Amino acid sequence: MGDLRVLVTGATGYIGGRVTPRLLAAAYSVRVLVRSPDKLRDVPWAHDVEIFRGDLDDTDSLTAAFGDIDVVYYLVHSMGGGEAFTDAERRGAQHVVAAARSAGVSRIVYLGGLHPAGVELSAHLRSRTQVGRILIDSGIPTMALQAGVVIGSGSASFEMIRHLTNRLPVMTTPRWVNNRIQPIAVRDVLHYLVAAAEAPLPRSRTYDIGGPDVMGYGDMMRTYAQVAGLANRRILVLPVLTPRLAGLWIGLVTPIPSRLGRALIESLQNDAVMTEHGIDDVIAPPAGGLTPYREAVRLALGRIERGEVETTWANAAPVGAPSDPLPSDPVWAGEVVFTDERSKTCEADAQTLWQVVESIGGENGWYSFPLAWAVRGWLDRLVGGVGLSRGRRDARRLQTGDALDFWRVEKIERGALLRLRAEMRAPGGAWLEWRVRAAARGSRLDQRAIFFPRGIAGRAYWYALLPFHGVIFKGMVNNITGTAARRHQSAS
Q1: 442 has which bridge partners?
Q2: Where is the NAD(P)-binding domain (predicted)?
Q3: For residue 297, what is the enclosing H or E element?
Q4: Between 20 and 30 A from 442 (CA), which of 16, 267, 432, 456?
């Protein structure tokens, strides 16, 4: 190990954000290609890698990032839909191949989806298979790993199992609940990915990877319930439950948005079991063997309970496109921007006040009118939004790019500034911002809500909610400072 120069695409994603520090631990020189470098600002390994801003559709950025690279990790995958999504995935793969060929890259490592041969695949599995085939046929040595359901804290597949089982003692499911699945612990996926950089590769091909257990999806939920200490779950199979209806249901009762839930469900309509074991010829299993499903669940729940979730599916989305700046930027001059600004001082010191601000959201709540927030979250879920159920990655600390209920952390200057960008369904762009600073007697909190309306619907939306602002935003600034003051008094 060592000496090898590797490039990770998708380093802000669920798998990419975990494999990068492990490649560093293996003494590789690591470069990452990301659309939003700001999302790496608070990542512990950010100062140990070269960061290149770019996109798979930006061939110039690929040319720059691929220079002097030996191994490229292709870990970019969208969960969009339609022909535009498939075309974008194909173009991205073709651009990567062209850049890798031009730069003299010696190997590509890809992570795709596990699936049986000769059956109709879901749109997402078809697209991932197409990307793998483009890479394998490129003439560049390619190791394309294929994994099924990945079990780890924060993975979309695990979060769907966790929330369905936690919330529904009796559940109705489609027929695929009895399909055979070979889940794999995320730690084992990472083992194979890191080893793939230098593993023997007689020829470019796919390699199935999976854990030691093969079970039905229903059995996975029942086993989860046992590990989590829940009562036995009853599962009723309804053949008429379509992926679309199941996706909508998942969107209502779990943090997984309906579109992503539908994509996951469609991928489960076929068995996902290893059909060959060629991986054993080139990469040995992890020391101690592959992780059983029950143990993978236990490990994931332990990390969630301790607040040690390294990456999550929710944080894989981009912070915001460069074409979508804050309303305070000069390019918005002359446009209509609505704001609600409030300030309040308190006797607590700035550090204590900041701790309250940084803990906002998730199970900690929003410090004002809980019913209004709950109703807004449910309405958002009903129209296909993410709602409030994404919660927080960590109960105490935030970092740029974190999902926070139906917001995302756009900018954080620890101790001074927290800015959230709304990801709820709304006729316009919305932000919430808090600034904390020391004052003559304690500290001061400046709170600003910003809304940039789109058309008449956006203006009507703002004015319809205006009567509630006095309750919501005034209550928020009062309760944040009040909580900080009480903490200060109890510590005195």
Answers
A1: 439
A2: 10-115
A3: helix 293-306
A4: 432
Are the C-beta atoms of 113 and 147 separated by less than 8 Å?
yes
Q: Is the dihedral of CA 197, 200, 204, 205 positive or negative?
A: negative
CATH topology of domain 5-316: Rossmann fold (3.40.50)
Query: What's the predicted TM-score (pTM) here?
Result: 0.73
Residue 329's pLDDT is what?
Answer: 42
Our measurement of the distance from residue 384's CA atom to the centroid of its chain's CA atoms, rounded to an integer in Å, reads 17
Phi-psi group of 445: left, alpha or beta (phi > 0 → left; psi -120 to 50 → alpha; rest → beta): beta
Rounded Cα distance, 375 and 387, in Å: 9
Q: List 369's β-bridge partners, or say none.
A: none
CATH topology of domain 330-491: Alpha-D-Glucose-1,6-Bisphosphate; Chain A, domain 4 (3.30.530)
How far is residue 44's CA from residue 11's CA, in Å, rounded to a whole number? 13
Q: Which residues pair with 453 in a beta bridge?
A: 428
pLDDT (tens digit, 9 = 90+) per residue, 432-445? 999 999 998 899 99
Alpha carbons 244 and 24: distance in angstroms, whole number: 41
Q: What is the pLDDT of residues 84-94, one digit of tens each?
A: 778 888 999 99
Region 166-176: mean pLDDT is 82
